[in-house]
Amino acid sequence: MMLEQFLWVIFPYMCVVIFIVGHIFRYRTDQFNWTAKSSEFIEKKQLMIGSLLFHLGIIPVIFGHVSGLGIPKTWMHALGVNDHLYHIGAVYIGGIFGAMTFLGMLILTSRRFTIRNVRRLSSASDLIVNVLLLALVCVGMFATLVTNAVQPEFDYRETISIWFRGLFIFRVDPTLMRDVPISFKLHVLMGFAIFAFWPFTRLVHVWSVPLNYVRRSYILYRRHKTN
């Protein structure tokens, strides 16, 4: 009971607090290193392929998680999305984008560990977050493609989703996670662990999208006359 309370109540809130406080602390004390620290000058081809696959896959995957966890099952039914249609989208469409994310992360992780100069440039946090992200995606793919096939009667929208939404209103019921398959449990815990690591890794560059370029004035250049 105590372990259940820790895993599904204390641990998620602890990770969220670290996520928020860690970002504030790092922004106030370490803005100079608020960067992705690109190693493109060392190796470009694998970085380009892996990064493209990862980013093209992860964005739909995130939206899928938000809709699956944040939108109640009854709301989906009201919108005309029945269980069969939702299952097709979650497993097949989600599986495709999940596979893209996994392949991209596999390439990026292999690149970081196998290319000597890239590995030397990497910090311990870079290596840890790469492995953790790869494991997170791998477990997520296993849960989507294998667990859903082996246990088709399990519907995470009746357990994990309700538990997850309870976190936002401070009415968490840890017993909802009791009979959840182990692959889904690991995926959830690893996801929160990523949030705890986030402020102390290169992942902070996600918040540094250069939106100022959109509203920036044009820069005028003069062409030198040649004789």
Characterise the protein shown here:
The structure is a single chain. The longest helix is centred in the middle third of the chain and has 32 residues, at 83-114. 68% of the residues lie in helices and 0% in strands. Helix 2 (45-70) runs antiparallel to helix 4 and helix 6 (124-150) runs antiparallel to helix 8. It is mostly helical and 227 residues long. It is built from 9 helices and no strands. It has helices at residues 2-29, 45-70, 73-78, 83-114, 116-121, 124-150, 160-168, 182-197, 212-215. The model has no long low-confidence stretch (mean pLDDT 87). 16% of the residues are buried.
Q: What's the short version?
A:
This protein has 227 residues and is mostly helical. It is 68% helix and 0% strand.
Q: Assess the beta-strand content as a share of residues.
A: under 5%
Percentage of residues assigned to helices = 55-70%
Mean pLDDT metric: 87
* Radius of gyration, taken over Cα atoms and rounded to an integer in Å: 21 Å
Distance between the termini: 85 Å
Structural class by sheet pairing and helices: mainly alpha
> What letter string, H or E per element, gives the SSE order?
HHHHHHHHH
| Global morphology | globular
Regions with pLDDT < 50 over 5+ consecutive residues? Answer: none
Largest sheet: none
Number of strands: 0
Number of helices: 9
